[in-house]
Amino acid sequence: MTTTQISAATDSLRARLGERVLTPDDERFAPTAALVIDGPQAPPALVVRPRDADDVALAVTVARDAGLPIAVRNGGHSFGRFGWVEDGLVLDLRLLADVDLDAAAWVGRAGGGTTAGAYTAAAGELGLATGFGDTGGVGVAGLTLGGGLGYLSRRDGLTLDNLLAADVVLADGRQVHASPDDEPDLFWALRGGGGNFGVVTRLHLRLVPQGPVYGGVLIVPLTARALADVVAVAHQAPEELTVMVNALVAPPLPFLPETIHGKQVLMLEIAWSGDVVDGDAAVAPLRALGPAYVDTLGPQPYPALFEGGPSGPPMRASGRTGFLQESAVDEVWAQRVLDGLAGSPAAVSVVGVRPLGGAIARVPADATAFAHRAHDLVVATTAMAPEPAASAVEAWSDTLASTLGLGGPAYANFLGTVGEEESRRAYPGATWDRLAAVKAVYDPDNVFRGNHNVPPAG
Ligand SMILES: Cc1cc2nc3c(=O)[nH]c(=O)nc-3n(C[C@H](O)[C@H](O)[C@H](O)COP(=O)(O)OP(=O)(O)OC[C@H]3O[C@@H](n4cnc5c(N)ncnc54)[C@H](O)[C@@H]3O)c2cc1C
């Protein structure tokens, strides 16, 4: 890519989009391009901020014709840093963030740049919800296209199970509507296949009634017995009770009491989404784990669970992930987690365990491009370091992942390691073959390759 080609593409986009085309000499460029997870790459050539699907189609067409690589950015949270591309065009969708709620039809429509927090707050005003993850800043599109595992998943399915339709700009600039009746192969592939197939400018999502939840955070001492026990409780819990288990060394952050800074703790993110009056009884097995350092559990509006999230400057993150059966998580396995955390060279290290099951497991494995329905648990290790002490942290991540048995199939949204081998972990066997066939139809030149990429078949 020559400087002349980049300036020709920039000029042509500026003629239509004006100051919504940012180049590195613009003071808005660096803060706009910044992601939640930091990285070592050189900057993009330009950031383009579309306001509608026509703007997206223009940007895709200009970039493709100029041979400029494209990164698509929604909430900027991907562990693979897919919202960034060296010397290429970042399509920043955050101005496409309208939320339109049709309560009578139980459908929420979200622009391709909406965040989970903004959508959840708007739906909450009407006593409605679509289940996302656990963090308000994560993009609805980025989350949904890869899966969407959060507080309501065991009751209502993954977010992608609640995707009713999507409006998509394809690699050739065409705009299509994908649903079970329109472009059904594309619709199948979008539900799990990530950003491989086009730019989703609008998602049509199923809404459900959602009143207050009984939830919050419970922090208790971390022991091998407590970790094994809580995973068993989370796995066997009723579908309305979600327990996201995090084992970590408590960092010196203001929201954690000073007395636990530096201690190994279990931080449980909990939501009981059944009748709130039953919440106290539902979380009793968790409170019975032992005296809590922190207990914020109680009735609260569902959108309150999405407030907060990462703040401060972006950090380098090193992550590994895989699925396990619940029977593999015993005290011996849990002790490996404790030993791993004790030896971490990173500023913050977390081993997270989330149960699947419930409504997620009731969807046939081949109904969507998320094939991992039979697993009990997703496990993810994350090490965050302000400085790029990359090699020590990466080596620690590799060792811990192997000790914990995380080498096999993987959840795309938690997969921070990138490459064909890793993509095949996210899309095993027949899923890979079908995705590659759909890719050959909708993006034969692999224009959308800044993702857990599935190259076109043939
Ligand atoms: C703090 C944190 C908490 C998280 N919590 C959860 C959780 O609870 N549950 C869970 O399942 N995951 C969770 N994740 C993972 C998250 O779902 C993925 O990282 C997801 O890809 C982030 O989406 P994004 O839009 O924020 O990221 P971005 O970096 O903006 O986008 C990532 C990629 O998604 C694709 N994409 C995004 N928008 C579009 C679009 N409109 N059209 C086409 N492709 C698009 C593109 O390939 C893009 O490059 C979390 C991540 C972090 C950092």
From TrEMBL:
- Cofactor(s) needed for function: FAD
Keywords tagged on the record: FAD, Flavoprotein, Oxidoreductase
Q: Which residues form the FAD-binding PCMH-type domain?
A: 40-210
Lineage: superkingdom: Bacteria
Entry's SUPFAM superfamilies? FAD-binding/transporter-associated domain-like, FAD-linked oxidases, C-terminal domain
Task: Read off the InterPro entries from this record.
Answer: BBE, FAD-bd_PCMH, FAD-bd_PCMH-like_sf, FAD-bd_PCMH_sub1, FAD-bd_PCMH_sub2, FAD-linked_Oxase-like_C, FAD-linked_Oxidoreductase, Oxid_FAD_bind_N
Q: Which GO terms describe its molecular function?
A: FAD binding; oxidoreductase activity
One Pfam family cited in the UniProt record for this chain? BBE
Sections of the chain in a coiled coil? none
- Please give the family membership noted in the entry: Belongs to the oxygen-dependent FAD-linked oxidoreductase family.
Supply the name of the protein: FAD linked oxidase domain protein
Q: What is the species of this protein?
A: Xylanimonas cellulosilytica (strain DSM 15894 / JCM 12276 / CECT 5975 / KCTC 9989 / LMG 20990 / NBRC 107835 / XIL07)
